């Protein structure tokens, strides 16, 4: 049994997903071992309730197992991460949790991951790129460092030589501006023929 577990550890994600879809419990166990901690840590950035985090991660893995034959999973980790973030978004939406200040863009972008969303990933990236090109230099730099380079507000303030409060204000302004821009883009995409 130990040699079989070692064998599964050597498998690439693609092989594990194939076996998982076929109902292989050891493949599922390996996916769980490989990714549960990363998902937990990602969720902790958005929620501070250990109970909620554990429940979300458990639900995502339970759903992965019970619906294994019904999903077309290309990349397992991005699939799991999207599932976890969607669960967090649903908690925000129901008012059972509030987003941490550090992650407002994640909170907003998650709404586009719903099945009935008008945006696909390419359209969303294109809209954000257009929006960024319209922003003042400082706001664009702050946004880029926060959401592309994944720097903290403290790191950004040190790099740009501005106060952390200024960074936070720039991020809040960016968040509001981008939300308005995406809302308008969604309306245009609704009426514009594809």
UniProtKB/TrEMBL annotation:
One MF term in the entry's GO annotations: DNA binding
GO biological processes: DNA-templated transcription initiation
Alphabetical list of InterPro entries matching this protein: RNA_pol_sigma-70-like (IPR039425), RNA_pol_sigma-70_dom (IPR014284), RNA_pol_sigma70_r4_t2 (IPR013249), RNA_pol_sigma_r2 (IPR013325), RNA_pol_sigma_r3/r4-like (IPR013324), WH-like_DNA-bd_sf (IPR036388)
UniProt entry keywords in alphabetical sequence: Sigma factor, Transcription, Transcription regulation
Keyword Heme: no
Domain RNA polymerase sigma factor 70 region 4 type: 136-171
Keyword Calcium: no
Annotated NCBIfam families: sigma70-ECF
Family: Belongs to the sigma-70 factor family. ECF subfamily.
Protein's recorded name: RNA polymerase sigma-70 factor, ECF subfamily
